[in-house]
Amino acid sequence: MDFQEAIYTQFAQSFEAQQQALESLPPYIEHAAKVIFNSIASGGKIVCIGNSTGSHLSQYFSTLMLDRMDRERPGLPAINLSGDGSAILAITHNDSYHDVFSKQITALGNPGDILFVVANRGNTSPIIQAIQAAHERKMSIVALTSPEAKNVSSLTSQDDTEIKINLLGTARVHECQLSVIHILIDLLERQLFGCED
């Protein structure tokens, strides 16, 4: 195996995936940034969840919200439900694994808050129940998905925003989702703090 060729192929595939995302996603990303801005400007917060490796991306998004990316600025209200191991274990033990997010959303979510979901598998019941609980709490959904997350897509309403990475392959999907997260943070900072390059 030629490692140099393999490296070149990986970069080339990544560039191609980013180009494809650039051609289709900007309107959805812009809409999501405006929805998140409106929630924060009205005193709401962003509640983040994810399944599988999407849980790491959701945690990364909440970290960038609470801290910052490149610009010095105040923290923004966000909480990541995927990272509270004690709560997840307690809910799984006392109730059900399917309730690990929905029970927390019912307790913490308020009307006007946003549920930020990174879902790359559609049949994960905790994600499905979380979206249903968020709708019951009058929360809007911003979902980063892939073609495999069909159940998540079917649950989003006209008040929700789905940013679907229409690609196959875990690495390419995650790379594009990471770019979307960085762009969302940049757009939020521009709206909230008038940040310029």
UniProtKB/TrEMBL annotation:
InterPro entries per the UniProt record, alphabetical: GmhA/DiaA, SIS_dom, SIS_dom_sf, SIS_GmhA/DiaA_subfam
CDD domains, A to Z: SIS_GmhA (cd05006)
Domain SIS: 36-194
Pfam family membership, one: SIS_2
Molecular-function annotations in GO: carbohydrate derivative binding
Gene3D superfamilies linked: Glucose-6-phosphate isomerase like protein, domain 1
GO biological process, one term: carbohydrate derivative metabolic process
The protein's name: SIS domain-containing protein
Organism phylogeny: Bacteria, Pseudomonadati, Pseudomonadota, Gammaproteobacteria, Oceanospirillales
